[in-house]
Design goal:
about 160 residues, alpha+beta, Pnp Oxidase, Chain A, 8-stranded antiparallel β-sheet
């Protein structure tokens, strides 16, 4: 598994494209998070990923998605659709609980700051670090006749 910083060091253009797509609506990251239910079926949830210079995180409220990640840390993350549904970023890997209180406090402050100080994670929310196994970036080019260009990255 790799960190966001290792992705940036390995493929800076892919990491920059991913960051731009995850934060495309402004200072708040938005994505869909896929988890694995007990019966093995996929479950999909909207989340607000947090990117630092070297890591990718997500706060998860008390929910079935949190239970999924605590039981089976595998995840799939996908950026929200772009206005013309042409570009996309996604990552797969493993989510692990962040136990360090200083890291949690720092990221809770970042989360609140990205939302203008109006919303902060509650004490019941669990902070997960999302380690990366693989990711993709799709960019669409052309006029009229669109041509998607797919890039893939693996650890």
């Amino acid at each position: 598994m790799a960190t966001w910083g290792q992705l940036e060091a390995s493929d800076a253009a892919m990491a920059a494209g991913g960051r731009a797509l995850l934060y495309q609506v402004g200072p708040v990251g938005l994505a869909f998070l896929g988890t694995v239910r007990k019966d093995g079926v996929a479950r999909l949830h909207p989340v607000c990923p947090l990117l630092t210079d070297d890591r990718m995180y997500v706060f998860v409220i008390p929910s079935m998605k949190r239970n999924d990640l605590l039981r089976d840390g595998r995840y799939s993350l996908h950026s929200f659709p772009t206005p013309n549904n042409e570009d996309a970023f996604g990552a797969t890997g493993t989510a692990s609980v962040v136990e360090d209180a200083q890291t949690r406090d720092r990221l809770a402050a970042q989360f609140a700051a990205e939302r203008g100080g109006k919303l902060a994670p509650s004490d019941d929310d669990v902070l997960f670090e999302l380690s990366i196994d693989s990711c993709f970036l799709t960019r669409t080019t052309g006029h009229g006749d669109l041509h998607p260009v797919h890039q893939h990255w693996r650890v």
